[in-house]
Amino acid sequence: MRSISKHQVLFLVYIVLFLLVITSPFWLWQLKKTKPLDVLVIDKTVSEKSYREHRGLMWLLNNEKYVMNDKSYNYAKDYSGFKPGDGEYKVSPLPENLDDYDLIYLADQYGVYEDEFYTNQSKKGNSLLYGGLTDKEISRLEEALLGKKKTLIAEFNTFASPTDEQARERMANLLGLEWSGWIGRYFNDLEADEVPLWVKRNYKEQTGRKWTKKGKGFLYVHSDGKILVLDEKAITSDNGLSFSLTNKGRSLTGKNVKSRYGYWFDVVQAKPGTSVLAAYKLPVTSSARKMLSAYNLPVEFPAILHQENAKYNSYYFAGDFADEKEIPEIYQTRGVTAWKEHFGARHSFYWNAYVPIMKEVLDKGLKKTVKQQKAEVASENGLEYNSKTGAANIQIMKNGKWENLLIKGVNMGIAKPGYFPGETAISKQEYFRWFEQIAQMNANAIRVYTLHPPAFYEAFYEYNQRAKKPLYLLHGVWIEEEKLVKTKNMFAGGQPEEFKENIKQIIDAVHGSADIPKRTGHASGTYKWDISPYILGYILGIEWDPEAVHETNQKNKDIPQFKGKYFSTKQGNPFEIWMSQMMDFTATYEQDRYNWQHSMSFTNWVTTDLLTHPSEPSENEDLVSADPNHIVKETGFKAGMFASYHIYPYYPDFLNYEDKYVNYKDEQGRKNNYEGYLQDLIKHHTLPVLVAEFGVPGSRGLTHKNIHGMDQGNHSEQEQGKWDQMLFRSIVNTGYAGGLVFTWQDEWFKRTWNTMDYDNPDRRPFWNNVQTNEQHFGLLSFDPGKEGESVYVDGDPSDWYRLKDKATIVEPQKGDIKQIRIHSDEGYIYMRADFKQPLKLDSKNLYFLFDTIEGQGKKKIDLGEDTLHSLTGVDFLAEIKGKEDSHLLIDSYYDSFYFQYAHLLNMIPKASYANKKNNEIFHPIRLALNKSLTIPDKKLRVPFQSYETGKLTFGNSNPESKKFNSLADINVSSDRRMAELRIPWALLNIKDPSSKEAMADLWTGGLTASKQIKGIHLNVFTTDKKGKLLGDMTPEDIAGSFIPYSWENWEFPAYHERLKESYYMMKKAYSDK
């Protein structure tokens, strides 16, 4: 046998080594261990058998050797959604059991339409075959994610059509983000067939012009149909958005990924607590930035969001990240992803961004949760309770030990715009979003006054399942006030029985065991979410009518002291005895039915406090006391009792006149009558005291004044926040158990005494009356108009340009005004005047005239050198003379304030001219603050008080501005060539703008008289300081040039949520130690 030479051996070795090197990607992949990972992929957009929306994900799973049931993933079978066949299709629904899946991946939920699927087939149409996320599917996902630890990953299209709004909001909550409603895409050629036909059709409908766009550019589409195009003149580079990881993204992946993204994307933003791992940046010019700003569109926005909570973590990819045409058939190889990333497909977003990021997410980014601080429950002989009371505080258990909890809370009402409270219209998604925002404000408790719909309890339960720290609830029990005021006897008219029924319903509801039939004006439904571990206590009742309390005591003098199982009275008056009975019933019912106890209190307020106030001018405000010290808990009640009061700084009136309060100085050396009262009140209590309501409103209108400025209204949002902060610090400094700011959301349905006669009570929820302070105590504003369509008086014309033909535009032929624009929404009418020459108010005056109703108004207006003789009556005159001298004036004949307080009530002097039409006299617009008072201990008579609410404030009403002032009425641009004015509807005697209802002739029909108007007529002009018209304008020109303006009636108001500046200031106050 011939021997093998050394050269031959070396050659064979080289061959073997060469083959090993060449085949190494395959055998190295075979040597790699498999990794079990059960992934549920949901893809509803599979119109043909490329499976491109999820194929890239499954290739990566297989390449990384992730297996399910020891098998690799089959992109044609291993997913739920739309499954195409040869001319037919089937739908694979979600599996029955989602518990065993580690990862749920939503690829694309857009769906499949007939014209896409049945191409070249007889069944051709344009209707949806299957697509969009449904409420039922999201409920299944929620249930699964709240169970075992899982990860949720979703990408575009998760939110846009055809997913409906409710499902969209629920999905956004799951992912910890807010969707703007905008989607977008980069096109290499806007003329190409790739631009969808529906885009071109919508563009023509909106602009009246045919689609003629060419070249590179970005297309934006809003969920309401709006279209915005940035053509090649607006962009500075090709190939789409720039994409880069943030610091947090680099920390997760260990890489510095940068790429270009050129397909469909969402415009989203992170909710508090959600991290931005990657961001997009638009390559646009400065002029394009301004255009984007007009639509509230950012230049930089999130591309990848990551949320971790106590139950699951989630990622949102704001693009079609897994969608890739060029996917290899073979996945059994190593190194191909690195080669593709750096050499083979350097311009592919899938290979150089999605794959390296997704590999790291799969390797070390799944099932990441935060450690949860649970609501601990004490157990004693089968009894459970989660709170008790100490000497001055409510206490909760932490790590098995009782600790004081300073309540940093917020009250929450039951209404939103467009609905009365009894309609219980707030959705689960809204509640959930609000709970998140409240917790982000560093609050630890919410208080509600009555039973809410089941959505509240479901959202509250789910929030606390996911939250790092528990959010507690103080639950009120409402009593029907009308019957109480009518009977003036707590023991009569079936009130104890009705109140007990309310108590039972609320206890059953919080334990998840109530099925309440429909009742007009009340919440109802099935309550199956047990939130009892998060209930901090019950607060029974309302702000008690003092006459009802007094009469209850007088009519039941012989009733004996009460001795109950859990609560009794000592030296209690009949009202206190009744309250003790109700508290004992509450404790007994919950103990017997659920073996639970919760801390107990009843609602009280300054009017029925236990102090005597010698300076109080109103007998009813110091008529009777409800003393919580007279109600004592028995030893069997472990959860404890506390007192709770509603305390405001401006009411009752004694707070402004009682020397020991007025002259009290707080630790900062400021005079602080609020803190003075707090200190006096708490020292008379032997149990913890909670301030269950405090705060001031951020409204334009004013109702009561406080001697030190803490007024009931006419505060900017910053002023509201400043005073709310100070009130809370006074609460803490004087040793209270904490406080709950009033209130979370603005409440459009509410009324107040000095404006309630000027509007239509049946239409209050349908518009935003900034003159009514009671509507604007909230930290959450419901700003009028759709988001992105608001007009601001801020000196920036871009919001007007965005309106396009929605605004009325007039170009006067004469005078100093170049152009006039008019618009309105649910809160204001807006006017913009553009000038031919700069408006210098040191040498010019600016006037706006309003004719709101026919048959009255001034037809002769003396300006000074010139006098107007109007063909139509002028009902209101806005006179802009300078920052400190600008006013809206009213025709004295149409002055509702004068008519009410002079003619009807004889509280102010009468004027002989006021009841005569066209009397040539305008009045300042005023609101009443107080009737004349006599301060008993000082023998001081205080005259009738009012203030001028028609005084106009210069400022910037844009919340995005550093100079933002929510009270701003007027703004003159920096170049002085534009002035913007907004007037609240109520200042124009409009009783309901949603139906164009205005006050009618007061002198013939009275204060309640109203009429439907077709619209209003306006005019704008300038004069010099002597009152001479500027330019070539004459009085005759103005007389005949009034601009007609009308608006569409509405049955449901357009509005959008916005956290006020006061929210962020209370966040700071609640974060302080």
List the keywords:
alpha+beta; Rossmann fold; TIM Barrel; 4 domains; ten-stranded mixed β-sheet
What does this structure look like?
Keywords: Membrane, Transmembrane, Transmembrane helix. InterPro entries: GH (IPR017853). The chain crosses the membrane at residues 9-29. By secondary structure, this protein is an alpha+beta fold. The protein has four domains: 1-30; 32-364, 3-Layer(aba) Sandwich (Rossmann fold), CATH 3.40.50.880; 387-781 and 1057-1071, Glycosidases (TIM Barrel), CATH 3.20.20.80; 817-1047, no CATH class. It has 24 helices and 60 strands. It has a ten-stranded mixed β-sheet with strand order 5-4-2-6-9-18-17-16-13-14. It has an eight-stranded parallel β-barrel with strand order 24-25-26-29-32-34-35-38. A hairpin with a 4-residue loop joins strand 44 and strand 45. The longest helix is centred in the N-terminal third of the chain and has 26 residues, at 6-31. It is globular. The chain starts with 5 loop residues before the first helix and ends with a helix. Residues 120-125 have low confidence and may be disordered.
